[in-house]
Amino acid sequence: MNIPLSSPHVHSQYCDGKSTAEEMVQAAIERGFVSLGISSHATQDFDPGYCMDAAKEEAYIREIRALRQRYENQIRLWLGIERDAYSNADPAKYDYVIASAHYLRPDGDTFSVDGDLGQLRAGIDRHYHGSGGAMAAAYYALLGSYVRRSRPDIIGHFDLVMKHNRQGELYDPDEPMVMRAALAAMEEAFEGCRLMEVNTGALARSAARAPYPSLTLLKHWRGLGGEVILSSDCHSAHQIDAGYEEGLRLMREAGYDRMQYLGTAERLFETTAI
Question: How many domains, the chain?
C-alpha cells in the first residue's frame, strides 16, 4: 500500500483487546506504520468487562505516555479514547476522542447492538415490538445526537448496528425508515465532527463482509463534505492493518482521492492521497 500506514482505533488488554499496548506498538513498527493511536474503551457505569475502570484508566494513560517516549524514534504514538454515548469519561485527558455507540438503553434497560445476538433480539422484542428497523433507527438517532453534542475528533463505526445484520436477519437496511434515520443521523453528526473512520475491524474478525460504513452511507458522507480516516479497530496485534486494502477500495468507490491519518509530529491529523 502506497500510503502512510496508521490507525487511530486500536484496543489492548486495558479493555477488550487480546494484546498488550506495547505489543500493538511493536506490531505497528514491524508493519512500517508512521503513527498509531491506542484508543481503549472509556469508563462507564455498566458492562465492566468491556471497558476500563478508573484504576485501569490511570494505568493506561501512564503506559501510553511511557511507550510514546520509549518508541519516539520509531513511531509517533497518540493517546486516544473510544468514548461511548453512555460513557462518563473525561475527554480532556486524551489527545483525541473517537465517539461511538455500542448500546441502547430504552427505559433504563441496557443492551448491546454488537454483543450477544440473543440479548439484542430480546431487546428488540421488549422495546421495539419486534421491529429491528425501529431498533436501528433508535441507534442512529442516539449516535447522531451524541456526536453533535460531544464534538469528538473522529466518528467511530457509524453503522455498527449492522454487525448482526449481514444477511438482513434483523431488518432491511434499505427500508425507508432505517435509511431516513441513518442519513438524518449522519447529517446531525456532521454538525459536531467532520471526520469519520472507515473501519476494517469487522473484516478481520469475520463479523462483516465489508468495512463500516456502507458504500451508500459513505457516499452520503462525502456529499456532505465529510472527511475520512482509515482504521483497523484491531484487538490483536497481528491484525494491526487487517482489511486495509478493502477499506481503501471502499473510499475510492465512494469518490475519495485523499484521506486523513494520525500525524507524525505535533499536528493530530495529516492528509495523504489515496
Answer: 1
Three-class secondary structure of residue 254 per DSSP: coil
In a domain, 98, yes or no: yes
The CATH number covering residue 144 comes to 3.20.20.140
Is 74 inside any structural domain? yes
In a domain, 1, yes or no: no
Bridge-based pairing of strands 154-155 and 96-100 is parallel
Per-residue pLDDT tens, the chain, 274 aa: give them: 899 999 999 999 999 999 999 999 999 999 999 999 999 999 999 998 889 999 999 999 999 999 999 999 999 999 999 999 999 999 999 999 999 999 999 998 999 999 999 999 999 999 999 999 999 999 999 999 999 999 999 999 999 999 999 889 999 999 999 999 999 999 999 999 999 999 999 887 766 678 999 999 999 999 999 999 999 999 999 999 999 999 999 999 999 999 999 999 999 999 999 9
| Nearest Cα residue to 4 out of 249, 261, 228 | 261
Query: Which domain does 121 fall in, by range?
Result: 21-273
The residue written with cell numbers 468495512 in the block is 211
- Full-model pTM: 0.97
